[in-house]
């Protein structure tokens, strides 16, 4: 009984002496949807970071005999009903209708193509640094098209993994720029007030009043068409950040107006702290949890912005691969009617945006652990 009582007391003591971040984590773990969203996003970012390893093929490799091939199904049971521990796909047979020129693909149930893990395949450079040829999975004979192929016979599963790296990183880089601009300009506006506050707020109101999509389209159309892909990437990121900082700056300004007359700020001034130190070491950390929530909920907007611009042909362009670029290539009635697997990138965008929203909701609830 005494041991149980001691354990109970120690648990209560841990709760009383827990830091703000520990209390936030304790409350966040109770939000199941937020945890699920965080796990899904972690999977997406890990696969995007190591997309060369997870992809069975090089994204530019063409399979001329398998144009617009539908997704292949993985099997554990063969045509005779026998179970195989190693998954496999059947070899594909192509037929061409000489009258309509329609391609049809069927499985040859007599020829199995086992799927092997950590298999040697197409060579690649991981992060453009390490030359390797090991892939997580693949086949030694036949083909493996989990998401099918497109008009040039390129594997869509590999292209979607590569696209996740571009689309997801644009959200992070764009938010990083927006975070810096929002904190600096919002902090200056709220801390100093007066004429500088008026000027910054009028600029914010002007930018917010402009419809986002037409503004993005106009700015992205101004990018030179002969720019290399890396310049276009950073150009699109900067464009998406132009509007993204405005809402964050208003939140920071409001918090600064609320906190700048608090006792701890006055104590810092009396102690001789500089204004930059007061802003960076005292004011911003006091509502850092709200900033994290705001950033988490803003990333989906960045991803949707890049996807929309690339889908309209005004953002990233081939040979760069992003979810928007892949959807742009599927922008025809043939894709919708006959090749619906070309729209898979749209499903990824929906899943990622929902996961960020769930994660943001959980962080917002955890930001105030005392409720």
UniProtKB/TrEMBL annotation:
Positions of the ABC transmembrane type-1 domain:
164-360
Listed Gene3D superfamilies = MetI-like
Domain of life, per the record? Bacteria
- Where does the sequence pass through the membrane? 33-55, 166-191, 203-224, 230-252, 287-313, 333-359
The biological processes this protein is annotated with in GO are: transmembrane transport
Pfam families registered for this protein in UniProt: BPD_transp_1, OppC_N
PROSITE patterns listed in its UniProt record = ABC_TM1 (PS50928)
Which keywords belong to this entry? Membrane, Transmembrane, Transmembrane helix, Transport
What are the subcellular locations of this protein? Answer: Cell membrane; Membrane
**CDD domains found in the cross-reference section:** TM_PBP2
**InterPro entries the record matches:** MetI-like (IPR000515), MetI-like_sf (IPR035906), OppC_N (IPR025966)
- Stated family: Belongs to the binding-protein-dependent transport system permease family.
Quote the protein name from its UniProt record.
Answer: ABC transporter permease
